[in-house]
UniProtKB/TrEMBL annotation:
It holds the Pfam family Glyco_hydro_3. GO terms for molecular function: beta-N-acetylhexosaminidase activity. The keyword Signal applies. It comes from Neolewinella aurantiaca. Residues 600-954 form the Beta-lactamase-related domain. One of its GO terms (biological process) is peptidoglycan turnover. Gene3D superfamilies: DD-peptidase/beta-lactamase superfamily, Glycoside hydrolase, family 3, N-terminal domain. This is beta-N-acetylhexosaminidase. Its EC number is 3.2.1.52. Residues 49-364 form the Glycoside hydrolase family 3 N-terminal domain. It catalyses: Hydrolysis of terminal non-reducing N-acetyl-D-hexosamine residues in N-acetyl-beta-D-hexosaminides. It comes from the Bacteria. Belongs to the glycosyl hydrolase 3 family.
Length: 995
């Protein structure tokens, strides 16, 4: 290796394994501090002309090219002392390794740049996060989000050893056919472009990254791509001043650190034929430097581009750009030719050495402010994990959510509300389902999906039209062609014909995942959502917005047609449906949460406490964790647990069916909590329970026994079901299905009720958890409403809320494969209990009771509890009045644990804890015998669900309880909350958060 030049004695060498806080970047290079001046002077003093000229060069660098490319870059660094690198495609790991390797070769740290308009994903798309393109950002009304994106991109660039982001794009795109800017622009409005460009710049520069406004003086109104030829813009100076130049002038005033000069021919500014603005002294010196007062760095656009190379030779391009007063030559085709030509221009007097000195001093001052007065080597350790952080993903999600634009909704179809009659159909044009959009739609409504290409065949059209009936709801997703800058959505005659046919039969909602200019072909349709991109996150955000989980409030950043004009966009209110986000979006450390839950789940399964489980966590109305563990049984061949599996909910039935139904009847005035239940059930007159009232029954204060083992007296001497009471198939009066191939004589039901009504009240006036009161309440619901508890709950809650899995007797609707078995019963049914209720008494009532019998998935349970957190409102429908929810989910008088129907946090320290000790005293929910728990906490706005079949193969296995698995899983939610941060949420029970 060559002797280290004397200049390195002025530079602090350090191997940085972690990133430190970054100072903000000051863009004005016309002034400096004394310390900055000393450093610049000392470094410049070591430079001969060759080293000075090297600082003007910024080379192309790739991390996906072979050894020859790497050798070429190294040779140029060593021979020409180049001042910078611009990285393109590759992988983050390889790029960082090369950056460190190249920096180690350089006598002065190089300025490393990237095109990162939508983040590192612009150049490393398969490996790093791509944020929304600027056209989508142009739709966002909250410009602080743009700042946040700039700050996050700055963080990622520091982690990669990158110093310059060639962003924001300040081109005002007012040409729908612009082939190279288009979706890269914030839109057609100069104020919107300026405001968002400013926030983006601030986010970068406040966090120590040099921003670069491009493409000066404005590339928005051209149909030519300067990569291939020199665009000509014929507007006069007055027009340029009022529109194209406006954002640049504003950001110059506000401290933009650099500007990229475009390859454009603009006769109003320089009338020389084929004279690119990047090589124009009237544009760079007279206009940009003198008239606009810009004092930062000027980068040329890429000098390999045909916009300049078609008209100028190697070296001449670079020399002319330097003579025009550009500072840094980006991607010269030939470094030696560039340096030779510049030296020739110096010799000819076209460029002076004083001109070069001025540029080099600007570059050195900029390097100092970027921290390049010292050489750093970022660590490769956990690089990809730190780049693609959950917080970055959350930001991307928020950006797309805020960009969603409801262009029009003449029939008021948004938010989409599934109807009692008619079905929901989705049609995907340009992509085959399933897509992220179709999968998220499935989370809200049972849907049939169809797909076709943009050249809709006759057979496809007929198939789709035949699937749609009158009154159906049809959601059509139109996907872009995936083109890099255009993202065109090709709406042709075949597509329009299909859309018109569907619109004539059904309620039609269009979602456009691509360029907003594509809206021009959709003027005839009444409900259109613009989603801007076919990115997976955009698709997810669109579905959540359409179904009301997220507010839609974007505005079109361009005009596509009279019916899709700039600033068009309706604002929707959230319909209070559960949404989906990653944990960091709601203030939970997702990695910590997953680690804790996974550890606890694996511990329980390894100890044979349960063969599997599902855990769901929601916060602020968003499901942020939903994961299945283990299998349906301990057999390795059994099915793996899926988060959508349907479990026997045991005593969760008490709140998710019976209590809900009682709440509804009370608020309708059909039931009174404080009058004897015999007022509603005359058959109770003269029985032990005649004078019981609902309030103490719900709070387990009625004195009833805990339970009655009804099944015992129906067994024969061998402990098997007696033929007096059972048959193996339904026949005659043996009609009650207790289990598969086991039918009970219906007369025994009367015996069961007689035992309940005539049982003494041994615990009168005391707390005693009891199933018997909930048996009675199920019969009460039937008597008052004319509907059994299963049908009443389904009609008033499950079906209108779109809860697909909440049901009694699930084998009527679902395959057994979705339902984990509950127990291998060797004491009553002498069979595997699988898809029929485990509770013996509920089974003897045919599977429907008030205390047990309900089955469901974690997501549907969470939805019920979210409705309760939202004080009875879900999906824009008020299922229960707020005062009703408050009444029932409030602690019973003088009770340390129970509300009305609901379990609550045990406040008596002398009794065992039923819930996480970190939960608030307002938390409510219930446990279930089969290994179930569901809790809602209005203070932290958390919904927690765990489902298991811990009773398999035997209910006598109590390891699940001894390990306190449910409580500890619940605690993991609270332990994972990121302290000291505020997050958006939706309040309940008077617990308000920022809207």
């Amino acid at each position: 290796m060559n002797m280290i030049p004397r200049i390195l004695s002025l530079i602090l060498l350090c191997a940085a394994s972690t990133l430190t806080a970054q100072q903000s970047y000051r863009g004005d290079l016309s002034t400096h501090t004394a310390e900055e001046g000393r450093w610049v002077d000392s470094v410049f003093a070591t430079m001969n002309l060759d080293r000075q000229l090297g600082q003007l060069i910024m080379l192309r660098a790739h991390s996906d090219r072979g050894a020859d490319h790497v050798a070429h870059v190294k040779a140029e660094i060593k021979k020409y002392h180049v001042g910078g690198l611009c990285f393109f495609q590759g992988t983050p790991e390889k790029q960082l390794a090369l950056t460190n390797e190249y920096q180690a070769l350089s006598s002065l740290p190089m300025m490393v740049s990237m095109d990162a308009e939508w983040g590192l994903g612009m150049r490393l798309p398969d490996h790093t996060i791509s944020f929304p393109k600027q056209i989508a950002l142009g739709a966002i009304r909250n410009n602080e989000l743009i700042y946040d994106m700039g700050a996050e991109i700055a963080r990622q660039m520091h982690r990669m050893g990158v110093n310059v982001s060639f962003s924001p794009v300040l081109d005002v795109n007012n040409n729908p056919n612009n082939p190279v800017i288009n979706t890269r622009s914030f839109g057609e409005d100069r104020y919107n472009v300026m405001a968002k460009g400013y926030q983006y710049m601030k986010g970068l520069q406040d966090n120590g990254i040099l921003a670069s406004a491009k493409h000066f003086p404005g590339h928005g109104d051209t149909g030519t791509d300067s990569h291939y030829d020199l665009p000509v813009i014929t507007h006069d100076r007055a027009r340029l001043d009022s529109l194209e130049l406006y954002p640049f002038k504003a950001l110059i005033r506000y401290g933009i650190g650099s500007i990229m000069a475009a390859h454009l021919q603009i006769p109003a500014l320089d009338d020389r034929k084929n004279r690119p603005t990047s090589m124009s002294l009237p544009v760079i010196t007279d206009l940009l430097r003198h008239e606009l007062g810009f004092t930062g760095l000027v980068f040329t656009d890429g000098l390999e581009m045909k916009g300049v190379t078609n008209h100028y030779s190697n070296g001449e391009v670079e020399a002319e750009a330097i003579m025009a007063d550009s500072d840094i030559l980006l991607l010269p085709e030939s470094t030696p030719a560039a340096i030779t030509a510049i030296k020739r221009y110096i010799a000819e007097g076209k460029i002076t050495e004083a001109d070069i000195e001025k540029k080099v001093r600007r570059i050195l001052l900029s390097k100092y402010r970027l921290g390049l007065n010292r050489l750093t080597f970022p660590s490769p350790r956990n690089l990809r994990g730190e780049l693609n952080s959950p917080e970055a993903y959350s930001l991307k999600q928020r950006l797309f959510e805020n960009a969603m634009t409801l262009v029009r909704d003449s029939e008021k179809l948004v938010p989409v509300q599934p109807k009692a009659r008619g079905k929901v159909v989705t049609v995907h044009i340009g992509q085959q389902s399933p897509t992220p959009f179709s999968r998220r739609v499935d989370d809200y409504v049972k849907t049939t999906h169809y797909s076709t290409s943009y050249k809709v065949s006759g057979a496809d059209r007929q198939r789709i039209e035949n699937a749609v009936g009158e009154g159906d709801q049809v959601i059509v997703a139109l996907y872009s062609d995936g083109s890099r800058f255009l993202e065109k959505v090709p709406v042709g005659p075949e597509v329009l014909g299909l859309l018109r046919a569907l619109d004539a039969k059904a309620e039609l909602v269009l979602s456009v995942f691509g360029n907003p200019y594509s809206l021009a072909g959709l003027d005839g349709f009444g409900t259109v959502l613009m989603a801007y991109s076919r990115d997976d996150v955009a698709q997810d955000a669109a579905a959540q917005g359409l179904f009301g989980a997220n507010k839609i409030n974007g505005r079109l950043p361009v005009t596509a047609s009279p019916s899709a004009a700039f600033n068009a966009g309706l604002e929707t209110s959230p319909a209070f449906r559960m949404g989906y986000a990653n944990p960091e979006a709601v203030g939970i450390d997702g990695n910590l949460l997953d680690a804790k839950i996974t550890t606890l789940a694996n511990q329980a399964m390894s100890r044979k406490a349960t063969p599997g489980m599902v855990v769901l966590v929601g916060r602020n109305g968003k499901i942020v964790y939903e994961k299945g563990f283990g299998r349906h049984t301990y057999s390795r061949s059994s099915r793996k647990v899926d988060p959508s599996d349907i479990y026997d909910l045991a005593s969760l039935t008490k709140v998710c069916a019976t209590t809900l139904s009682i709440m509804k009847l009370v608020e309708e005035g059909k039931l009174n909590l404080d009058v004897p239940i015999s007022n509603y059930m005359p058959e109770l007159v003269g029985t032990e329970v005649e004078f019981l009232t609902l309030r103490p029954i719900l709070a387990h204060r009625a004195g009833l026994r805990s339970w009655v083992p009804f099944y015992v007296e129906t067994l024969n001497a061998n402990g098997k079901p007696s033929s007096q009471y059972y048959r193996s198939q339904r026949t005659g009066d043996f009609q009650i299905e207790v289990a598969e191939k086991l039918f009970m004589h219906k007369s025994y039901v009367d015996s069961m009720w007689h035992k309940i009504y005539t049982n003494e009240l041994p615990n009168e006036g005391q707390y005693r958890y009891s199933d018997l009161g909930f048996y009675i309440m199920a019969k009460l619901i039937d008597q008052i409403s004319g509907l059994t508890v299963d049908e009443y709950a389904a009609r008033n809650f499950y079906r209108p809320m779109g809860l697909e899995t909440m049901t009694y007797r699930p084998l009527r609707s679902f395959p057994k494969s979705r339902i984990p078995p509950t127990e291998n019963d060797n004491y009553f049914r002498h069979a595997q209990v699988h898809g029929t209720v485990h509770d013996m008494g509920a089974a003897m009532l045919g599977g429907v009771s008030g205390h047990a019998g309900l089955f469901g998935s974690a997501r549907d349970i969470a939805t019920i509890f979210q409705m309760l957190l939202q004080e009875g409102n879900y999906g824009g429908v008020q299922y229960l009045r707020p005062e009703t929810v408050r009444l029932f989910a409030h602690r019973y008088a003088d009770e340390t644990r129970r509300g009305l129907g609901f379990d609550m946090k045990q406040l008596n320290e002398n009794r065992s804890m039923n819930i996480s000790p970190f939960a608030s005293e307002k938390a409510f929910g219930h446990l279930g015998f089969t290994g179930i728990a569901a809790w809602a906490d209005p203070v932290e706005d958390i919904v927690f669900v765990v489902l298991s079949n811990r009773t398999y193969p035997s209910m006598n296995n109590n390891t699940f309880g001894k390990l306190d698995t449910r409580l500890r899983l619940h605690s993991a939610c609270y332990e994972s909350i990121m302290k000291g941060k505020s997050f958006e949420g939706r309040g309940g029970f008077g617990f308000s958060k920022a809207p």
